[in-house]
Design a protein that fits this description.
two-stranded antiparallel sheet; single chain; 5 helices; mainly alpha; 195 residues
Length: 195
């Protein structure tokens, strides 16, 4: 078993729920990987059937860098927060897309509710378009359409994890701003669904 020293990746967007006009030639990436663990002592436990094995291990930092344990902790915590918020965002987008698919067929079941369903689909689409770039059909479309908040979180994650060092001071401020925007949209989604 080989471990790449990363934690679990964030929850991904369900590609089967995306409404696309055509299948793109290039599939694009699968999203960011999990956060790289910080240097320190760890214990790995593996269970196979009734047999459990435990092994201690130590992860060392690159001896060429002067990053402190506190800096590694700050980097790890911020990256974990960003990935956690990205997971929340992706869960919400998957939820929106599933609801939109169900609402598009409401006219078959309850025809008199079609106008209400169409209104709800429009409101869900507005929230979805702020969370992710709904117009992107190919990876290069990122140059033609405004980025979604998911793109902003992924780019912010790149800034935080680009090196084994304390994240730049501005990243925490930007992260808080983006987190607030995502939280506001998720609250709007909950209010819409509950109403």
């Amino acid at each position: 078993f080989v471990w790449d020293l990363t934690e679990a990746a964030p929850i991904q967007l369900d590609k089967s729920l995306k409404d696309q006009k055509y299948e793109p030639f290039s599939k694009g990436g699968n999203g960011p990987a999990g956060v790289v663990i910080k240097p320190g002592k760890y214990q790995v436990t593996m269970t196979i059937g009734d047999v459990t094995m435990t092994q201690s291990l130590r992860v060392f930092k690159d001896p060429r860098i002067n990053t402190s344990d506190a800096d590694f902790t700050e980097q790890h915590d911020l990256a974990s927060s960003i990935l956690g918020k990205l997971s929340e965002l992706n869960i919400a987008v998957n939820r929106i897309r599933l609801m939109k698919q169900q609402l598009k067929n409401i006219y078959k079941i309850i025809p008199e509710q079609t106008p209400l369903a169409d209104d709800l689909v429009a409101k869900l689409t507005t929230i979805e378009a702020l969370l992710v770039d709904t117009k992107r059909e190919t990876p290069r479309d990122v140059l033609r359409h405004p980025a979604g908040l998911d793109d902003t979180l992924e780019n912010l994650l790149s800034v935080v994890t680009i090196s084994d060092s304390k994240p730049p001071a501005q990243t925490k401020e930007v992260a808080d701003d983006v987190f607030n925007k995502v939280d506001d949209l998720l609250t709007q989604l909950d209010v819409l669904v509950n109403g």
